[in-house]
Amino acid sequence: MMKKVMVVMGGMSSEREVSLVTGKGAAQALKNSGYEVYEYDLKNGHKFSKELIKIKPDVVFNALHGTFGEDGSIQGFLDILQIPYTHSGVNASAIGMNKQVTKEVAVSLGINVAESQKMTFKKFKEKGTRIELPYVIKPVSEGSSVGVFIIKTEKDLKHVNYADENQDILIEKFIDGKEITCAVINGKAHVVTELVASKEFYNYEAKYTDGLTEHILPAPLPDDVTNIVMSYSERIHNALDCNTVSRSDLRYNETDGVVFLEINTNPGLTPLSLVPEQAAYIGMSYEELCKTLVENASCKKI
What we know:
The protein has helices spanning 16-32, 45-55, 73-81, 90-97, 99-108, 121-127, 204-208, 223-239, 274-281, 286-295; strands spanning 4-10, 36-42, 59-62, 116-120, 135-139, 149-151, 168-173, 178-185, 188-197, 213-216, 245-253, 257-264. By secondary structure, it is an alpha+beta fold. The protein has three domains: 4-87 and 289-295, Rossmann fold, CATH 3.40.50; 95-113 and 176-284, D-amino Acid Aminotransferase, Chain A, domain 1 (2-Layer Sandwich), CATH 3.30.470.20; 116-173, Dna Ligase, domain 1, CATH 3.30.1490.20. A five-stranded antiparallel β-sheet has the order 10-9-8-11-12. Strand 8 and strand 9 (188-197) form a beta hairpin. Helix 1 packs across helix 10. The longest helix has 17 residues, at 16-32.
C-alpha cells in the first residue's frame, strides 16, 4: 500500500530557511519514489495538530532543524499521537542536541573530546573561563554553527553576544587542524569527508552557500585515522540509539589526534549537505536515502 507521508519543514528555529530547503528536496524525492506526499510548513503548533488530524499521515518526515525539530520536542508530540516519524526518537534527539551531555556520553565511550566548560553567557561575562586561549564559544543547544565564535585573542570577545544573557554556552578548547565529518547510515559509517572552508571555519554561511566550502571525499587521512573517525561516529550513533542517519563532526591534528565535537541526529538534506553526498559515494541515491528514512520511521509504542 502506498504510504501517505507528511513532510514537515520550516519551523520556528534559527535554522528555518535550511529546513525549508531540506523539506522541499525530500518531498520531491519521495514523490519520485511513488509516495503520496503532503508538504507542511510548521509555523503554529495548534494548526499543525489540526492538519495531522485532517491528513492522517502514515509517516511524518521530519525535515525540521534546530529547536523543536531535533531536540526531542516534535518527537515526543508524535510519540503521544502514535504517528511514526523519520530520524531519531526523543532520547537520542534531546541528548544529541545538548552538546555538553553528548560530550559526557562520548567520554564514557572512550571517545576523545576537547576540554570544555559550560556556563551561562552572563556568568561568562562576569567571571570568564578556565579554558585557555584559543577557544570556541557556542550555544549548548543549537545547530548549523549558529552563534559560534572563535576566540583567539581577548579582542575577539567584543564580537560575542547573545540576546539572552541566561543562554547556556559551551566554552571549548579550539582544536586546530582538519575539519572532518562522518555520516552513519543504518548503524554503519562508510567514508569521511574533509571540509575546507574559505571562511575561518565551517560556519552557517559556509555550510549553505555554494562555492564557499570544498568537500574532499574521501578525506586524505591515514587509514588508522579514518578508522578512528568512523569508529567514533558509529559508537556515539549506536550509544544514543539514533535511527537510520546521523552525522558526527570532528577535528584532527597530529598532536590532539581525532577529537569528537558533536553529533547531528537530524542532519541537513539540502543540495549542499554532507549526508546525501556521502550516501551517493556508497551508491545510495538521494531518493533511496529519503525512502530509507521513511521505511525506517517509527514512534514509541504505547
